[in-house]
Amino acid sequence: PVLDRLLLTGAAGNLGKVLRETLRPYARTLRLSDISPMAPAAGDHEEVIACDLADKAAVHALVEGVEAIVHFGGISVERRFEDILEANIRGTFHLYEAARRHGVRRVVFASSNHTIGFYKQSETLDASVVHRPDGYYGLSKAYGEDMASFYFDRYGIETVSIRIGSSFDEAQNRRMLSTWLSYRDLTDLIGRALFTPDVGHTIVYGASNNRDLWWDNRLAAHLGFEPQDSSESFRAKVEAQPAPAADDPVAVYQGGAFTAAGPFDD
Ligand code: NAI
Ligand code: 15L
Asked: What is the predicted ipTM?
């Protein structure tokens, strides 16, 4: 299946720049948006539209005419609440309201492992666990998941919330040996999230086929996600780094260092 027009938010970001290329087979036209500068449209298959997610009218205009949305825009690390509020909380609200007004039926939401960051690395979680957000960023993603749930129950707009682990070109440290998600597996998972029928609101953990996983995706089995890559190829390089102390948050909590960020005094 191919969509007519797909909106990607966060197109100037680390993952957005990758997805700008890899999502191409999924839609005849990719509408790319960010608040930061983006490369101009590379051809008829691209539309490039600058937009601040915190600007309700601008988001409504942005969403008009698209069939589905891959929502990767927003602040992607821990920051003061007021910044997160605008980009992530108001921004996600604007996006869902615009989806409702313009009849968009499917959203893929870049949620995060930081929704559950205060669980221990010794625990194995499925998608039914209660949130244990590890900061304002994680709280905003938990709110985004609840927003997705509400917009499905109330308006029938379907969402797959991907609790992404760590999606980078390489696993950079010991924690990422468990949390790493390759770009290839991410792209495949987004395709499943866009095209699997009847997903309602599905929460899926986004990790590759790593040896020591903390996450169990059986509640998202209908997506048929079978990651192809593994962090094992980075193990030797990572294990050559000095090991953190056993009580260091990076070695204790699933959210790693995010659990020790803040406080933010104005
Ligand atoms: P990134 O920070 O490189 O990209 C996010 C993009 O959102 C940036 O280009 C930024 O300019 C844009 N943005 C920020 N505020 C905005 C606003 N008010 N209006 C419009 N655009 C705005 O982050 P990355 O790594 O590419 O992540 C993409 C998404 O995936 C984010 O939502 C992030 O929270 C989520 N995620 C990423 C993970 C990873 O391992 N890379 C892990 C878990 C979640
Ligand atoms: C995230 O949610 C961040 O967006 C990303 O930059 C990484 O820090 C990732 O989680 C992680 O936990 O490794």
From this structure: 0.99
Q: In angstroms, rounded to a whole number, what is the distance separating the alpha carbons of residues 34 and 56?
A: 14
Nearest atom in ligand 1 to 34's CA = 21
77 ligand 2 Cβ < 6 A: yes
Say if CB 154 and CB 211 are below 8 A apart.
no
Residue 89, φ and ψ in degrees, nearest 5: -85, -60
Domains and CATH numbers, the chain: 3-260 (3.40.50.720)
Residue 170 pLDDT more than 80? yes
CA dihedral 83, 88, 93, 98 (to 10 degrees): 110
**Orientation of helix 183-195 relative to helix 14-22, angle to 10°:** 60
Between the CA of 65 and the centroid of ligand 2 the distance, in Å, is: 31
Is 137 tagged catalytic?
yes
- 176 pocket-lining for ligand 1 (C-beta < 6 Å): no
